[in-house]
Amino acid sequence: MFIMENEVINSPIEKLPNTSPLTIRRLKFLEIKTYFDLLNYFPFRYEDYSLISSINRIQPAETVTIKGKITEAKFQISKRGLRIQNFKIADETGMMQLIFYNQPYLMRLLKKGLSISVAGEVKLFGQKMVMEPKIYEIANRDHLIHTGRLVPVYPEIRGLSSRTIREKIFYLLYHFDYDRIQSCLEEFLPSKITIYNNLIDELSAYQNIHFPKSKELAQKARERLAFDELFLIQLSSQLVKKEWKKEKVGNRFTAGSGHDRYLQDFVENLPFKLTRAQKRVWGEIRSDILKTTPMNRFLQGEVGSGKTVVAALACYLTYLNGYQSLLMAPTQILAQQHYHTITNLFKKSEIINPKITLITSSQKISSFQFPTSKPASSFQHLVSSFDIIIGTHALIAKKRSFEKVGLVIVDEQHRFGVAQRAALKNQGINPHLLTMTATPIPRTIALTLYGELDLSLIDEMPVGRLPVKTFFVSKSKRHACYQWIKSQLSSFKSQVFIVCPLIDESQSETMKSVKAAKKEFQTLKKIFSEFRLGLLHGQLKSKDKEQIMIDFKNHLFDILVTTPVVEVGVDIENATIMIIEGAERFGLAQLHQLRGRVGRGKKQSYCFLFTESEELKNRQRLDFFVKNQDGQRLAEKDLEIRGPGNIYGTKQHGYLNLKIASLTDFQLINKTRSAVDYFLSHYKTDQCKLLNQRIKNYQVNTVANN
Ligand code: ADP
Ligand code: MG
Predict the structure, then answer these.
(1) In sequence order, which residues have a C-beta less than 8 Å from that of residue 18 and are 6 or more positions away?
(2) Which one of 52, 74, 532, 702 has the fewest beta carbons within 10 angstroms of its own beta carbon?
(3) Which of 15-24, 195-204, 329-338 has the lowest mean pLDDT?
(4) Is the CB of 304 within 6 Å of ligand 1?
(5) How far, in Å, is the centroid of ligand 2 from the Cα of 311?
(6) Rounded to whole angstroms, how far apart are CA atoms 598 and 574?
(7) From the CB of 307, is ligand 1 less than 6 Å away?
(8) What is the CA(549)–ligand 1 centre distance, in A?
(9) Among 152-166, 206-220, 505-519, where is mean pLDDT lowest?
(10) Strand pairing report for 52-53 and 533-536
């Protein structure tokens, strides 16, 4: 029975009645794929049109809703050419004038005799009270949707207005197959939990977040849905963790004294000393991979903090146990870089060395001239003869034989675990899994979002790193700064990144941003006419993007003008200068990620923040950035100032976008965490069918979005 009912709410959005294909397309653009997604598209504020007044009672400056019959409709053009739609409406108590501007289509819609409801502010024109309505609707239904209530306002996109979204949601909640929708929104939490946490029931929460009966209820609805969101995230992680704990590794590891000697030899032969943080994290990983339960660890560490060495140690122990390691990076260029770094690390330990290979799917990209790079000829050949296999995530996309794989390391793809590990398991292996990232994520957030993972943090940089000298450059100093850069380019053959600003608030790169970058590129070409410039943006094919990075690395040009897509993690040692245009538009953590593109070599590096904004708030924020080099701190500050939605800027960083809960709401995080603990110790998920369905929904969305 319940399965049928849940199917309604999970119906594809295409099935929504009375909705044009164009609207469907736009809804899908907002990632609304099902009815349930639509119900989870929440308003960000409400217009208060709840005061309904009769015409004789209205007061100037009051925001009201008035219902009446149209008694007159007139189209006028003012002396200055303004097109005015003039109406008169009447109720039992009086008559009033409505004035609309530049909406000629209203003349067709609002005919004499029609009952309408309008809302807006009452104004005094001379002695006369009139209204320039903010919104109108035809009032021949029992419900008012856009007037006469607290009216929800939704984030809109071009071609899809808040009004349309409101209508669709109203329809779903109150008209469409009412009983079946309602039964889908039945309470899914045990009453012990809802009562203890003072939560309103699920159905009222959905009704009141969209069409609140009062401001208090809107607030209660928000609290309830935020609770749901954090509860489901954490419960689902805990369930994954529980399942994981039941697993057994396919290939069991040991670490005898023989192994330890080799590991020690490896460490002693490194060209540097491991930092304390590296040693600690290696200890955590080592103890994990000696267990029979597969490791599922998330390693955070800033760019340059030395994650690769730790990964190499894990690969080495894997090799000493007679197994293979797979190391996967999001792009070919990063895979090549890993290959380069790891090969170098193993160069010195002469006693016993793993064989390392790089698999690149497209050999068309000219690679850097790494002397040791010997691409493998065929995969089968490689399976038998290599110990550390490095490539992109495509490595495990194809069906291949992985019986000897004991360790999988994934770089910069958070939440890689669930889906890809299932793929590996389908191929018969259950390896240890290490996920690495340079994205600074505050600890509370990491614990909430990645609860199924064990966390490790390299919170210390190797000694002797030169911090990137960072400066705030006001408008008047821009020219001088360009001159200084030119002299650096000529005297030291340095290379420069110029990052163009985000044009749209939108998370992904839009055409508008690309256009702006292209224009900036033309301007800069004139300013730096004696140098070679390249342009990188998100609308290029990924192969072309990589080629540009490679060309820049090979110093085929001096200046790379780029949108913020510029690859995380690619080391261009000779690039020592970065300009960030429109710096005020970036979050601190994102600025830090960008700044991490320079300072990769031994030379002193510089980062210049250009801004047109004179606002003190921005200035203070950027000053904090100028003075701080610690990514974790910057991320925390960001969280404090801008809220979590803005921390990482782009989705590709794997950051989960919460719909309604705030990750800065530590009280709610704690509350939901206790609720999850309580739930796990008192209930069985299998017995809570609706809850189970919610978890599945949640997991499907998470996997799909990552
Ligand atoms: P990331 O954490 O960004 O992956 P890498 O592992 O690539 O950083 O390390 C960056 C550089 O720092 C490499 O050239 C590496 O050899 C070097 N390195 C790593 N650990 C140390 C250390 N403890 N002392 C000095 N240099 C180190
Ligand atoms: Mg790295």
Answers:
(1) 171
(2) 74
(3) 329-338
(4) yes
(5) 10
(6) 8
(7) yes
(8) 21
(9) 505-519
(10) unpaired
Q: What is the 3-state secondary structure (H, E, C) of 399-447?
A: CCCCCCEEEEEEECCCCCHHHHHHHHHHCCCCCEEEEEECCCCCHHHHH
Helices 542-553 and 332-347 pack at an angle, to 10 degrees, of 40
Per-residue pLDDT at 701: 58
pTM: 0.74
66 - beta bridge partners?
A: 53, 118
CA distance 451 to 49: 43
Residues 6+ apart with CB under 8 A from 77: 83, 84
Euclidean distance between CA atoms 53 and 75, whole angstroms: 26
Q: Which of 498, 496, 499 is nearest to 575 (CA)?
A: 496
* pLDDT for the residue 235: 92
Ligand 1 close to Cβ of residue 341 (< 6 A): yes
Ligand 1 mutation pick, 267, 272, 315, 339, max ligand atoms within 8 A of CB = 272
pLDDT digit string (tens) for 364-376?
Answer: 333 333 333 444 4
In the prediction, which pLDDT does 696 show?
Answer: 78
* 3-state helix/strand/coil string of 57-106: HCCCCCEEEEEEEEEEEEEEECCCCCEEEEEEEEECCEEEEEEEECCCCH
Ligand 1 pocket member 274 (CB < 6 A):
yes
**Closest CA relative to residue 306, chosen from 332, 333, 279:** 279
Tokens of 558: 């001096």
Question: Each residue of 305-330: pLDDT tens digit?
Answer: 999 999 999 999 999 999 999 998 88
Measured from the Cα of 345, ligand 1's closest atom is: 16
Cα–chain-centroid distance for residue 649? 6
308 lines ligand 1 (CB under 6 A): yes
Ligand 1 center to 462 CA (angstroms)? 7
448 in ligand 1 pocket by Cβ < 6 Å?
Answer: no
Ligand sitting nearest the alpha carbon of 311? 1
Q: Verify whether ligand 1 is closer than 6 Å to residue 461 (CB atom).
A: no
SS3 content of the chain, % helix, strand, coil (to 5): 45, 20, 40
The amino acid at 452:
E
Q: Which ligand is nearest to the CA of 573?
A: 1
Contact present, 608 and 481 (Cβ < 8 Å): yes
CA distance linking residue 396 with residue 398, whole number of Å = 5
Please identify, by atom number, the ligand 1 atom nearest to the C-alpha of residue 311. 6
End-to-end Cα, the chain, rounded Å: 32
Pocket test of ligand 1: the residue of 341, 412, 459 to mutate, having most ligand atoms within 8 Å of its CB, is 341
Ligand 1: distance of its center to the CA of 183 in Å? 56
Helix-helix angle 588-595:616-627, to 10 degrees = 40
Domains of the chain, start order = 3-45+170-214 (no CATH), 51-148 (2.40.50.140), 469-628 (3.40.50.300)
534 lines ligand 1 (CB under 6 A): no
